[in-house]
Specification:
This protein is of the alpha+beta class. Helix content is 39%, strand content 18%. It has three domains: 286 residues, no CATH class; 159 residues, no CATH class; 58 residues, Arc Repressor Mutant, subunit A (Orthogonal Bundle). Helix 5 packs across helix 6, helix 7 crosses helix 10 and helix 17 packs across helix 18. 35% of the residues are buried.
Length: 552
């Protein structure tokens, strides 16, 4: 869908904070677990139970605010948001309404070369609700075939002896959330996708959330309206709730924009309502008329005092802020001479960028391009996912000791191995990169594989075989080279013998090549490589063929 000025889209991004315990009690904040096993009187809202604010949740929220350029409120308060739902045992949610954790800020986007700034209206922290699972029971057994307290899944409604049921799991009650509310500055599904991915990337870099959309760690609500013709003022907005994937957001926005346009084109009026996205039907269905603030009957939370944040607390959090994606990409370009595209690909995930830097540090060491006193501490620091600015100030502080002439070349080679070679294996195997790096292919081991290719010990096909073997085997890279007989043949005399054999066996192709069919040179190179078992240096093979045949 093309960008248009008549669409106004805003978002509320809800991210579960990766604290050790819940926001107002000591229950573990961990995914999964037996339903209703991680609960206590506080998160169940039992009479007499009093909430105590989790300091870690506040600091993670402050990280988000600082990363987005927001102003942290020195004195904010908590409120009760009253509404009924089966998985909200208190009958209200503790949130921030009148004064929130932070306000202002922005996110810079680059959508197909066009720069745009999306303003942040506010950031607040609150507690999550429980989870309701709607399922069918068949003769007392959940639709999944598991016992009912294990959580069932939907089955066909025509099953014999079936009855509908709603199962409530309170484990999620009280899990801390940070909510990021944007202004309606977004004009298309494409811009929305860029905005959500950018914020999600920032949250992952900050280390404030696991970020798993399919597990509900991050959820999106969006408000969509069509601006009034002429004055450009906002039209009546509709909210679509609980979108849990970028793909779902794109489909939901496209559907809702077209739905509102059809209504307005027909002379109708858009109703102010809340919608739910039906993934199967790919349509937004009415949930209820849109609530106003007064519908929730907000009032101050009497069991919690104001949250007071001094400048010293803000400065301490700022001092230990991790490197952010844009900063990281810029540093990769400055330090290593990477192309902008390469730096952006690497920094799409902090695990990939960290793996790249750790591998490059070890590669430089293996090739003798950097002294031990630099690479060892650098590798250790770069292996830590949470890199603060304070730590980064000492990493590679003596960059002048690295051969600057080879650094850009080796950096691009390493980036290609990490993103393409290793990336392909990760995609095919289903093993995530962090697990691979911590177990089967540490950065130091990958660096030795790359070094074998850079030195010319192995050619490209053999290097790929060596990579797979290094992942699957516990043998050293040197042992793998010997056992698999992968060492490249670079002796010109030996290669010349192989070339002579191939020319003798393919006289017709030789004559056609000399007559001008240049593509047959590649065929002959392939035949020589085949006779060498894939071990001959293809560059030398090509040069020998050209010399013996007397062709340009």
């Amino acid at each position: 869908m093309r960008v248009t000025n008549d669409v106004a889209i805003g978002f509320e991004i809800h991210a579960q904070l990766a604290t050790a315990t819940k926001i107002f009690c000591a229950c573990a904040n961990e995914p999964g677990g037996r339903p209703n096993s991680r609960v206590c009187p506080v998160c169940l809202g039992l009479p007499g139970a009093l909430p105590v604010l989790n300091r870690e949740a506040v600091e993670l929220g402050m990280r988000v605010a600082l990363a987005l350029g927001s102003d942290i409120t020195t004195r904010s308060s908590f409120s009760r948001k009253n509404y009924f739902y089966p998985d909200l045992p208190k009958g209200y949610q503790i949130t921030q309404h009148w004064t929130t954790l932070a306000s202002g800020g922005h996110v810079e986007l680059d959508v197909e070369g066009t720069k745009k700034r999306i303003r942040i209206r506010g950031i607040h922290i609150e507690e999550d609700a429980g989870k309701t699972v709607h399922t069918l029971h068949i003769d007392g057994v959940c639709g999944s075939g598991k016992s009912c307290d294990s959580g069932g899944t939907s089955v066909s409604s025509g099953a014999h002896g079936s009855s509908a049921a709603g199962l409530v799991d309170m484990n999620r009650c009280g899990v801390p959330l940070v909510e990021i509310v944007s202004d309606p500055d977004i004009s298309s599904p494409e811009e929305a996708d860029a905005y959500l991915r950018k914020v999600h990337q920032i949250l992952i870099y900050l280390g404030v959330t696991a970020g798993e959309l399919h597990q509900g760690n991050v959820r999106f609500d969006t408000n969509v309206s069509i601006r009034n013709a002429g004055d450009g003022s906002l039209g009546t907005p509709c909210e679509i709730k609980n979108l849990n994937s970028f793909k779902a957001v794109g489909k939901a926005l496209s559907f809702e924009i077209e739905r509102q346009r059809r209504i307005l084109d027909a002379g109708g009026a858009v109703e102010h309502e809340t919608l739910l996205w039906d993934e199967r039907a790919e349509r937004a269905l009415p949930m209820r008329s849109k609530e106003k603030a007064c519908d929730y009957r907000y009032f101050p939370e009497p069991d919690l005092g104001d949250l007071v944040i001094g400048d010293d607390w803000i400065d301490r959090v700022r001092r230990y802020m991790p490197e952010l994606p844009d900063e990281h990409a810029l540093r990769l370009r400055k330090w290593y001479g990477l192309r902008e595209y390469t730096a952006r690909v690497l920094t799409a995930e902090p695990a990939m960028a960290t793996y790249f830097e750790d591998t490059l540090a070890n590669l430089l060491h293996a090739l003798g391009e950097v002294p031990d006193r630099i690479v060892d501490p650098a590798a250790r620091l770069l292996a830590v996912p949470f890199k603060t600015r304070e730590k980064m100030s000492v990493v590679f502080s003596e960059m002048e000791d690295i051969n600057p002439g080879r650094l850009p070349e080796l950096a691009e080679v390493t980036a290609n191995w990490v993103t393409v070679m290793v990336g392909a294996w990760v995609n095919e195997s289903g093993v995530d990169l962090e697990t691979l790096a911590l177990s089967r292919l540490p950065a130091a081991r990958l660096a030795l594989v790359i070094a074998a290719r850079v030195r010319g010990t192995v050619n490209e096909p053999a290097a790929k075989r060596l990579l797979v073997a290094a992942i699957d085997s516990s043998e050293s890279v040197e042992e793998l080279l010997e056992r698999l007989d992968l060492t490249q043949v670079t002796d010109s005399a030996a290669i010349e013998t192989l070339v002579a054999d191939v020319l003798f066996l393919h006289p017709a192709e030789v004559e056609r090549l000399r007559a001008g069919e240049g593509k047959l040179l590649r065929f002959l190179v392939g035949q020589v490589m085949k006779r060498s078992g894939g071990k001959a240096d293809p560059v030398i093979v090509n040069d020998v063929l050209v010399r013996l045949l007397g062709i340009e």
